[in-house]
Amino acid sequence: MWIVCANAGDSRAVYSRSSHRAVPLSYDHNDEDEERRIREAGGYVSGGRVEGDLAVSRGLGDYRFKDLDVVTTGSSGETGGAARRSTKREQGGGGGGGKNAVSGGDGDGDDVPMLRPSEQKVSPIPDIIIQNRDPDEDGFIVIACDGIWDVQTNQECIKMVADIFAEGERDLGLVCEEVLDLCLKKGSKDNMTAAVIKFPKQTIGKGGGVLARRESRCGAGGAPTRSGGGRDNNNEEQGQVQLRRVSNPYIPPAHRKGREKDQ
Question: Would the pTM of this model clear 0.85, i.e. be above it?
Fold first, then answer.
């Protein structure tokens, strides 16, 4: 059994293993290789953003930072050698286009190299990390965008979620909501999205969970009502996934070699 994480965007994944030790499943895209690729593609990095605008250096959209000929022809250039945009000579009679040529070239009659997907200013090619699964050791996975990681390390987030489980919370949606609430209290000013994946090994303690936490915070005024209805106690020992989405996240450009400080 394996955990496979492909990181091509603006989130970070980490999982709890061996008594809540944080194990990274992805690394933020932020290193010299990323900036070199952007510059070689004709772009630049300013203020931690691609061309002073986009705060991710890898992603599936953002076509204004990509060669549209590559977007329309897919990833054939990755395996078939450097592709070329077709030229007037290739589009005209006689000779025909080359194996990797595509229509709609630059129109100047010259061969123009086509950048591979991995060479674009914003690349859709993900970093992939594979971790072996250990059912006797693996507790849960947290996937979240940078509003979460701006105010806490991987290990702090793992401890936060473990504490919520230890206090009796079974509803993974409420676990995610509590993580967002606590990050807001820590001063996060960025958009936040979080998902928690619980493995069977993770135990649930006794207690009132997130609602008891809210009652304690609110004091005599009582706990605020939760979103979405009652608790979901079904099949608590099976793998479960719930998601609470809070606006659209973004993350500064980063890359695997830009190891975060707490690792």
Answer: no
